[in-house]
Amino acid sequence: MKSTVLKLAATAALLTGAAPAFANLVYQTGNQQHGTGLGAVSTVVTVQDNNLPGGPDNGVESGCSTFNAAKPAKPLETCFNGLQGGDNTAGGAGTNTYLLSDITGLTSAGQLGFVVNVSEGAPGNTATLTDLYLALFDLAGTKLDTFAYAGSPLTLADPGGVGISGIHRFVLDDAQAAKAVQDCPDLTQCVVGGGIQFAFGTTEATPETVYVGAFEREGGGGGTGGQVPEPASLALLGAGAMALGALRRRNAKK
User: Fold this and answer.
1) Is 11 helix (H, G, I), strand (E, B) or coil?
2) What gap in Å lies between CA 163 and CA 36, rounded to an integer?
3) Which residue from 80, 180, 228, 230 has the fewest beta carbons nearer than 10 Å?
4) What is the spatial distance between Cα 76 and Cα 61, in angstroms, rounded to a whole number?
5) CA 28/CA 218 separation, integer angstroms
6) 231 C-beta neighbours (distance < 10 Å), count
7) Per-residue pLDDT for 34 more than 90?
8) pTM exceeds cut of 0.70
């Protein structure tokens, strides 16, 4: 019995080391809203790649916006976090970076979040998101931080096309919200950009967009949302419960 308990404890320890206790950007379902097309919201990046596997392009839809201190109105399309890039819509339309003090409703950098709008031809059609990051810059163009979605690929449904979105929301977890506030205590001195990428061959219709806003998080608002347990943390709890159960059964037999 002792060896069984030790094995359970060892398994829990290994699982704990296999994944972080927090993700940087946490997915949560928001409310669907109309009137969220280009120009109506603070769109960070707009991407389109309709070439399915076997087409002339690579079939991966990917793009980003990076603050350009020399020409703030013309963001760079240099991606971070290993994103491929190259699929920002023609002419830079929908590629923007924003001063935090210009984002409607934002009073703290910890409130920052992204909405991903999937537009795949009809409600219910899907695209598979693999990468998403939010980047913060100072006014000199230096990158201060990136906060990335660190979970498994997500299959996101089209909520109704261009201009209808709000369901697919990604917000900072507690730890990263505190870090964003530390990076940007003065909203007039920080700029936000970001990047997104979809899985090979999963996009085939009108562009996908990402816009930035101030959002309350599940479990709280402002800079204090609820902690989101990772699979490893849940596994640890389960293994711990099994170990306690084994000890109780052993003591009951004495």
Assistant:
1) helix
2) 4
3) 80
4) 17
5) 7
6) 12
7) no
8) yes
Contacts of 121 (CB under 8 A, 6+ apart): 158, 204, 205, 206
And the tokens for 58?
Answer: 């690579």
188-212: b (≥16 Cβ within 10 Å) or e = ebbbbbbbbbbbebbbbbbbbbbbb
Q: Could you write out the three-class secondary structure of 238-254?
A: HHHHHHHHHHHHHHHHC
As a dihedral over the C-alpha atoms of residue 144, residue 150, residue 155, residue 160, rounded to 10 degrees, the angle is -30
Among 103-112, 226-235, 240-249, the range of highest mean pLDDT: 103-112
Give the span between the Cα atoms of 151 and 191, in whole angstroms: 25
Q: Which segment of 5-19, 160-174, 185-199 scores lowest on mean pLDDT?
A: 5-19
| pLDDT exceeds 60 at position 245 | no
User: What would the pLDDT profile of 82-128 be if each residue is shown by its tens digit?
Assistant: 999 999 998 777 999 999 999 999 999 999 999 999 988 888 899 99
Amino acid identity, residue 14?
L
| C-beta of residue 227 within 8 angstroms of C-beta of residue 3 | no
The structure tokens listed for 167 are: 């369901």
CB 123 within 8 A of CB 161: yes
